[in-house]
Specification:
Elements lengths: L1 H5 L20 H10 L17 H12 L26 H10 L22 H14 L42
Helix pairs in contact: 3-4
C-alpha cells in the first residue's frame, strides 16, 4: 500500500493470484502488485502478515516505480560496497540501484564499508524514510520529515484514520506528549 501511495497508483479490483492475498485487507494492492509484475507477490508461500525486510522493501519500491522494468542489469549499475551484501543476494541489484539513486545508504559499522542488512526487518521510521526518499526522487510530496535528521525527535507520526497515510503537510505532533 505504501509503494502504491508513493507512486500514486490505485488498488485494483479482482481476485489476486496469490492465495494469501484473496481474503487479506490488502487484496486490491496485491492485485495491483501482480499487475505490475512485482517479484515478491509471485512467491506462492508469501505471508502478507510477516515483517518486510530491507531488501524486499527496496525492491518493491523500485518495481512499483517502474525503474527495474527498464531492462537494467548489473553491468549498468555500479557495484555496491556494503560489507554484508553479496551479488548472490536476490535483492542485490535493486539495493545497488537504490543506493546509486541516493534512496538508501546503509548503516555505519565503524569500518571502511557500510552495512545494509538486506535480510533485517524494517521499523516504521525506516519505511517512512525510504518512502519519503522515493517520493522526493520522483518529485512527489508524500511525508513531511524533519529537515535536520529525517526523523521527528520524541514524536510519533500520527496516521490518518481514513486511509492510513498522510499527504504533505498532514503530520501532526502534539508538543505536550509527542503524540
Amino acid at each position: 500500500k505504501i509503494a502504491a501511495r508513493v507512486f500514486r497508483l490505485q488498488e485494483k479490483a479482482g481476485e489476486p493470484v496469490l492465495q494469501s492475498g484473496r481474503s487479506h485487507w490488502a487484496r486490491g494492492y496485491v492485485k495491483l502488485a501482480e499487475n505490475l509484475g512485482v517479484t515478491i507477490v509471485k512467491d506462492a508461500n508469501l505471508d502478507l502478515n510477516r515483517p518486510a525486510t530491507r531488501g524486499e522493501v527496496t525492491r518493491v519500491m523500485l518495481e512499483f516505480s517502474g525503474v527495474l522494468k527498464k531492462g537494467l542489469n548489473s553491468a549498468q549499475i555500479e557495484a555496491c560496497n556494503y560489507a554484508d551484501l553479496t551479488s548472490s543476494d536476490p535483492n542485490y541489484l535493486p539495493i545497488c540501484l537504490a543506493s546509486k539513486l541516493g534512496v538508501v545508504s546503509g548503516d555505519d559499522n565503524g569500518g571502511a564499508r557500510r552495512n545494509f542488512r538486506p535480510a533485517a526487518n524494517l521499523v516504521r521510521a525506516e519505511v517512512a524514510k525510504i518512502a519519503d526518499s522515493f517520493a522526493n526522487l520522483f518529485d512527489y510530496d508524500f511525508v513531511a520529515i524533519d529537515e535536520d535528521d529525517g526523523f521527528f525527535e520524541g514524536g510519533e507520526i500520527m496516521i490518518d484514520e481514513d486511509d492510513g497515510f498522510f499527504r504533505g503537510g498532514e503530520v501532526m505532533i502534539d508538543e505536550d506528549d509527542g503524540f
